[in-house]
Amino acid sequence: MSPAWFRIHPVMAPAMYPSRAAACITDIADKLHSTYIPLPLGDQSIASRTPVRWLFPTGTYAAHVWEQGAEDLHLVCMAEDSKKTFWSVVAEAYEIEQFQPPEDDIFLLPVKRIMGTESTRSPGSRIYLRRCPIPQTFDIATMAGYGVPFYDAEPSRTPHESENLAMIINAEFMTSRRSTLVRRANGWELFKHVYMRLAVWADQNGLLAPSVGYLSCESLLWSVFNIIDANTFQERLSSEDHYLQLYLQFCAIDLARMDKAEVKSPGGQDFARHMTPQGIQTFCLVAEEAFKRFLWNDKHGDKFPLRPDADSSAQGYNEFIATANQFFAITFESWSGDVYTREYLARRMTELRKIIASRLNARVWPTAVSRTATSVVYLLSSLPPRFRAATRNTQVPTKDSKSVLRDIENDLEYDRGACVVTLLEMSREDVQKAYPKQRNNVQGTEEIPVALDDVPAPQVSPSTRFRDASSVLARLRYDTKHTATAFEVGYLDQHVPTDFEIGYIDRFDGLKWIGLQDWGRETEEEDFIPQHRIRMVRRCKDDLVIWDREKRIDLTDETSNLGLEHVRISVETS
What we know:
The protein has 574 residues and is an alpha+beta fold.
């Protein structure tokens, strides 16, 4: 994770809207023949076009606390066109053939991602376009005074259209003078600075991860707004630190009693509906630790600690370790090169992490600690005992951790022919060594990568077909140049304590070997080792590798020239 000073310093806040984002929005508005409505609108006059299409910013972008390169950008077009006509305009504007209008009225525009600064190491901001019809009683000329109305009771309006309209209602209200926060002198600037400091703190502690049941940027934005807006005229609350104390106190004390949180907005949306019980309790736990530090620092005359420094990212990970006494690793592995299979696995991976966290009553660190072409590894840490009563159906490992983890593995529902999921307990020392250097995913919407968590499938040379494991076995078994009894098959027991398949441990520690003549003779399902688990083939006498799946090495045709009298095959058990 990268230093976030650029994101928090008040002087640099306006620089978060460089010309790249503005240019993209202008280009989109021109392509759609629409009018961009900046927020707050104020006394600006809007030139009308025919047909009427108004393009609104939403969320953190409308609130001027959006981070370029790290958060996606959602634009809502309020149009008088029918759904079919509007999406036909989009298809024509971007030259999309055989375009199918999205049923949920949200579309990822085929435009280049908006990248952030080089230091952020973020994947870039994608731009989503949403559509909603114009409410019958809406007048753009009176929006500043009366806001954006809801739809009347019209059965023709879909839930997706109502949700997209609610995003406009939220953004317009937050930035308008109808908000008490905006009416207060310097109230809006105070809110922005408090939010940005809390956003940095949440990001560094792995709390901005909506895909695994934690906060989204939108839920954090509105929770901060609601608390500050409700207390904006209290005289004792005169500085950022006072509002930070109030926010953390609420999260550490009041929210800790809840299994379900609510973060309401004027549009009627609950931005915390995606949060899991473990996500809520994790947020309370981290807020509690920050609140304790605040009380200590305040007593001794120090400043509030929620300020970024060179070690703040590592500090968040260290607290992830310090607040737990048990740690687990989830390994997702797949060797499929099919893009649709890998898209399915990417989605399923997200759900399985939440399921496992619920069963173990554990906290998920959202960033992978290890990635290869075929595997992704995530870490979990147990929540303190006082939080266990808030979560049901947990199965916290005690004495026989291995059997409990095996039961959870067996209960998981996923395509075992395309993916293998392994759950192992880890030591505190191993977790400390596994600090992930990449940044958390803080996207406001769930990320659906096109490959296994954005890890590309192994590439085969265009001029040479890479031999698969089945072909290697057949060649070694049936080629007259070789004798089956001269070969051994090696496999990796995934439940060996030293095998966690994390970057800091040698992947091939703990390998076991089986004779080629015995390969495939197992009759019990738990003992059977399928061919897709094969990882490498090597010569016994000098360990020369002649076939390696990950490195795409294949010297099978040269075995006779190499004098391969004894060969072992390395695989993993399912």
